[in-house]
Design a protein that fits this description.
124 residues; mainly beta; 0% helix; 11 strands; seven-stranded mixed beta sheet
Length: 124
């Protein structure tokens, strides 16, 4: 069983930066692909970024490409989302997610484990 815990959310002005962190308890973190998703107010959960188990391949939603960076530290069982040039439309609850295989996915339904989420609010 894997439990995920996000941290690092908060309130930031447009143009600012935040770094989200996610700690994964449990075994075999280095064999699990990880992702970040977000759910804006009144909308469905959407893909943000994903990374393969080994950290060699990353995927991004078009809306965040060039502004956000996903990374992981398998020794620390951590995955990160560095968010730069934040915009009000990035306001959402951000979720860390994991899946039981090494290949990443952009689909919500292909992730097995979820954190409780952390709020990111970007003011204009």
């Amino acid at each position: 069983q894997v439990q995920l815990q996000e941290s690092g959310g908060g309130l930031v002005q447009a143009g600012g930066s935040l770094r989200l962190s996610c700690f994964a308890s449990g075994r075999a973190f280095s064999s699990k692909a990880m992702g970040w998703f977000r759910q804006p107010p009144g909308k469905e959960r959407e893909f943000v970024a994903a990374i393969t188990a080994g950290g060699t391949i990353t995927y991004y939603a078009n809306s965040v490409k060039g502004r956000f960076t996903i990374s992981r530290d398998n020794g620390k069982k951590m995955v990160y989302l560095q968010m730069n040039s934040l915009m009000p439309e990035d306001t959402a609850v951000y979720y860390c997610a994991g899946r039981g295989i090494v290949s990443a996915s952009t689909w919500v339904n292909e992730y097995d484990y979820w954190g409780q989420g952390t709020q990111v609010t970007v003011s204009s």
